[in-house]
Amino acid sequence: QVQLVESGGGLVQAGGSLRLSCAASGDIICISAMGWYRQTPGKERELVADITSLGSTNYADSVKGRFTISRDKAKNTLYLQMNSLKPEDTAVYYCTAVRDGIPYWGKGTLVTVSL
Predict the structure, then answer these.
(1) 64-104: pLDDT as tens digits
(2) Which of 25, 45, 57, 87 has its C-alpha lying 20 to 30 A from 96's C-alpha?
C-alpha cells in the first residue's frame, strides 16, 4: 500500500504561483512513476504532468512552460510548481503513484485561480 497526501492548494489570483506537494508513505520503494492529475466538476480527470523514477517528465500541452514537476526521493515528496496561473487551471489536483502497475491516489487539493 502507498499513502499519498497532497498539500499547497488554495486561492490565488491569475498570474500568480502555487507549489503543490505530495508526501508519499508506506510501501514506496518500488514506485515507478508519480504524477499530478486534475479534475473539475463534470469533466474527466486529466493528466497535468508525470515523472518516472529516472526523472523523465511529461506535461499536458496546456501547462507546458508554466508548470514544473519534480521529485525529492530523499523526502519521499512530489512537487508541482505552478506559475502564471490561469482561471482555467482551477481544479482539484490529485497526486498519483504507480507501484507494481497499480495506481494509488491522494484525496486531492483544491486550487482556485481568480481573475
Answers:
(1) 999 999 999 899 999 999 999 999 999 999 999 999 999 99
(2) 87
